[in-house]
Design goal:
Blueprint (H helix, E strand, L loop, with lengths): L2 H28 L3 E2 L3 E2 L1 H21 L2 H20 L19 H27 L10
Antiparallel strand pairs: 1-2
């Protein structure tokens, strides 16, 4: 693969990292959301499903395992930034517990664990999809 073929793949990787970051930030702000009927956990579905689906689709379309890891990396960086750097010291994006809402702690914990699990499963599945596949061929 020469340098001309690597540029588009690098752009795809960057876009996947950004998409993972968007999923991470979006999900982090949805942790306290309660749907009608008291249903909670939409952030967990986005974390697991988003990382898994985007990672698998990225691996299938680029035929590289690295592409499957990019959304998970973007998600992880975004969530870590939201948890530590971006927010002011007295504000919490993903709360550990709130006395008036006992379900928010497990939702936040599952969001963090589920996003990581979704990213790892996407990479593992990508290994199955890309076995024996050669490098992507340029479309011309």
């Amino acid at each position: 693969m020469d340098d001309a073929d690597r540029f588009p793949l690098a752009v795809v990787y960057a876009a996947l990292i950004l998409l993972g970051g968007v999923l991470g930030i979006w999900g982090a702000f949805l942790v306290p959301l309660r749907l009608p009927g008291g249903i909670e956990g939409l952030a967990d579905v986005i974390a697991v499903g988003g990382n898994l689906v985007v990672g698998v689709l990225a691996a299938r379309s680029t035929r590289t395992v690295q592409a499957a890891a990019m959304p998970g990396l973007g998600w992880l960086v975004a969530v870590l930034l939201v948890l530590t750097v971006v927010r002011p010291a007295d504000e919490v994006i993903i709360p550990g517990r709130i006395p008036s809402d006992p379900g928010i702690g497990p939702v936040g914990t599952l969001f963090l664990l589920g996003g990581a699990v979704g990213a790892v499963v996407a990479v593992l599945l990508a290994g199955r999809f890309t076995r024996g596949a050669g490098p992507p061929t340029p479309q011309g």
